[in-house]
Amino acid sequence: MIEFKAAVLDSCTTQRPFTDSTPLTMETVTAQPPSTKEALVAINAASLCRSDLSVITGVRAWPMPIVPGHEASGTIIETGKGVEGFSTGDQVVLVYQPQCGKCSCCNAGDVHLCEPGLAANRAGTLLGGESRLSVNGEKIHHHMGLSAFAEMAVVSEHSMVKVNRDLAPEIAALFGCAVMCGAGSVIHTGNVKAGESVAIVGIGGVGASAILGARLAGASRIFAVDSDQNKRDTALALGATDVIEAGPDAAGQIIEETAGGVDCAVESAGMHDAFQTAYDCTKRGGRVVNLGLVSPATPYSLDLAAHVTGAKSIIGSYMGGCNPQIDIPRFVDLYKQGRFPVDQLITHRMPLDDINLALERMAASQALRQILTP
What we know:
Number of helices: 13
Radius of gyration: 20 Å
Low-confidence stretches: none
Helix content: 25-40%
Number of domains: 2
CATH class of the largest domain: Alpha Beta
CATH topology of the largest domain: Quinone Oxidoreductase, Chain A, domain 1
CATH superfamily of the largest domain: Medium-chain alcohol dehydrogenases, catalytic domain
Largest sheet: 7 strands, mixed
CATH architecture of the largest domain: Alpha-Beta Complex
């Protein structure tokens, strides 16, 4: 058996500040050694995503108790039987959607939609269907097959992408979620072409990554919409050409500026009003990309007749439509070339022990990406 420190969530809470309610407690976790097709990874850096906050508050339902964390990098320290393509000492980016490689989605090339991977995530297990974690004999669930807010993690080999050791761990961590969800949603899901106009509604870590993706795609105008002045300033620094204050007039301003609306709007805030703004500011025949995770109970009304005459496409984006084994190395290369400055997404660095402070800062919308190190 292996023992290490991990941040454990026993039950959901919305009581703030999280620095006082301390929903996550650092516990000594016992882990079984990696089984067939699994690896033990020492976590080098993890970053906090707003989706992690939804685990804490219960907006997204997960089995409890659980070790959260789904965006991280690490070093392989042990492999189980049958692991292929990985060795002890490899630096890996951890990927929150494992790909079985055998289901109809994987066979069609849509590995981000892997059904067995999704089922395992929802059950709080690894891809093989088992949990490897416990505290005092009580089973602890895995978050997204990773449970990265910890010193170590047991993961499926299908949840790892190898990257060069010269890539800084804190940068490597970003490629597991923020980069794929943000930039991937613009490049793959939105299929943005050079010269097109883009609106990104919600400038958190993923929205900021989407701005970088729009720059890579060659968008002619990039509108960044957010209620926070600091985030609008950040958007300009990242390459947005225009910033708009979020509100009921935001879509109208974009329509006026573009004489009809943008070619593609990306909703990355996980809020009803943000999606409405994205939909309204998209031109006739344009694309609306929805990647924010709202509460499953959130209703939305669509004028079907107007939708038909507007001929807009609404496209859900999961993991940015990326194939991690292909896209992460490509994005890393672009970063190394200086064309994709994802390091600008990092706003804070702190020890893992300060995880509840990081949660509170995320809940207050005062951060893009916060790097946690064990």
